[in-house]
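Hi support team,

I've been running sequence recovery on a batch of backbones for a student project. Most finish fine, but this one hangs at about 90% for roughly twenty minutes before it completes. I'm not sure whether the input is malformed or the queue is just slow. I've pasted the structure tokens below so you can try to reproduce it. Let me know if you need the job ID as well.

Thanks,
M.K.
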């Protein structure tokens, strides 16, 4: 789809001072980032957010500035430059980009009303309504779940069904048949015996794969309470979709909530988890909670070779030395440790909290955990672990 940004006749002074509505700008820029991703450029949610900030800084009226803001934030290697230039020209129009030229962006506003159930809203082939709804969903994917209204939170809850978590794989002890690889001597010998000693096909084998266990440790203390509902919904998707998943909540104590999250309906599952968690929105003792997990479950096999995901902002009531020591133990037992911090995806964030500083040396992946787009990236990190 080509986005026409060619300069039109100079409008009246009053109209020239009217900027495009914020939803239209979000739709335009996020759509361009999605087009780049579809073309094979590695555009992450963090890069999209940085691009939005950079474009707002240079001003959307400056086409050259938007071009260079996107190229400096959305590309990672010089190999991305040809694809970036081609997609930019096709998305924003095919006109050349003279240095310093200002171009007015005129886009129809997009309604940002809360998403409904989707029944009867689009009418009979109403393309504009469908496009507006899709744009609203895309904007909602990138919004901080802690800032959502009740209606938007309900709309976001329905989008969790579209998440697709996958198990990380590990090599199994048993072998499986393969078209190449190590020669399977016994199978090859049996083939020759069936052929009465005549040479036959040579069989091969390789090590099979098995899904790794995933352990989710979710901080439900007071500072994390705006995110707890969404994090438990994400954990419910993991439990219902992926084998060998265990979920714990952390506050002033550690609570095993995997059984509660096996309910098919997500709202009933969250209600069941709420009934078994005694320290919801209370204090936090991350070090003690992780230590309790390791002492009771971790050394007995749950953490060994597992991918452990910690959801927390890093605020620790006790001294950071305890958290650092327990994270060291956790890292030594598990296959990979992922820490998802809801503030990691916000512009200007620096990991300066004492808890985060103590834990960082023992973390393999430090990712954002504040939006549906960030949850999608987290799923990819876990699947590749």
């Amino acid at each position: 789809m080509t986005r026409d940004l060619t300069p039109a006749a100079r409008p009246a002074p009053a109209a020239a001072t009217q900027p495009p509505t914020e939803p239209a700008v979000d739709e335009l820029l996020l759509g361009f980032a999605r087009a780049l991703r579809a073309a094979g450029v590695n555009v992450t949610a963090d890069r999209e957010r940085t691009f939005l900030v950079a474009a707002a800084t240079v001003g959307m009226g400056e086409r050259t500035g938007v071009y260079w803001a996107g190229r400096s934030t959305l590309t990672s290697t010089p190999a991305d430059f040809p694809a970036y230039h081609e997609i930019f020209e096709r998305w924003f129009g095919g006109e050349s980009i003279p240095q310093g030229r200002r171009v007015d962006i005129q886009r129809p506003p997009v309604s940002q009303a809360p998403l409904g159930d989707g029944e009867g809203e689009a009418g009979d082939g109403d393309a504009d309504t469908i496009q507006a709804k899709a744009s609203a969903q895309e904007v909602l994917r990138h919004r901080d779940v802690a800032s959502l209204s009740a209606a938007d939170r309900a709309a976001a809850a329905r989008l969790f069904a579209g998440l697709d978590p996958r198990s990380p794989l590990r090599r199994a002890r048993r072998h499986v048949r393969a078209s190449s690889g190590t020669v399977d001597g016994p199978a090859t010998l049996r083939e020759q015996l069936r052929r009465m000693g005549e040479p036959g096909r040579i069989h091969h084998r390789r090590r099979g794969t098995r899904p790794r266990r995933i352990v989710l440790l979710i901080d439900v203390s007071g500072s994390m309470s705006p995110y707890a509902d969404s994090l438990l919904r994400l954990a419910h998707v993991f439990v219902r979709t992926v084998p060998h998943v265990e979920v714990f909540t952390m506050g002033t104590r550690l609570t095993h909530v995997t059984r509660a999250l096996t309910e098919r309906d997500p709202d009933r599952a969250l209600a069941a988890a709420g009934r078994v968690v005694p320290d919801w929105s209370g204090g936090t003792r991350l070090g003690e909670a992780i230590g309790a997990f390791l002492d009771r479950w971790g050394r007995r096999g749950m953490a060994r070779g597992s991918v452990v995901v910690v959801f927390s902002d890093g605020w620790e009531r006790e001294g950071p030395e305890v958290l650092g020591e327990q994270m060291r133990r956790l890292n030594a037992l598990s296959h990979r440790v992922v820490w998802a911090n809801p503030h990691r995806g916000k512009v200007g964030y620096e990991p300066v909290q004492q808890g985060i500083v103590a834990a960082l040396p023992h973390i393999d992946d430090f990712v954002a955990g504040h939006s549906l787009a960030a949850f999608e990236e987290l799923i990819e990190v876990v699947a590749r672990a």
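--
Follow-up from support: It reproduced on our side and the slowdown came from queue contention, not your input. The radius of gyration is 26 Å. No action needed from you.
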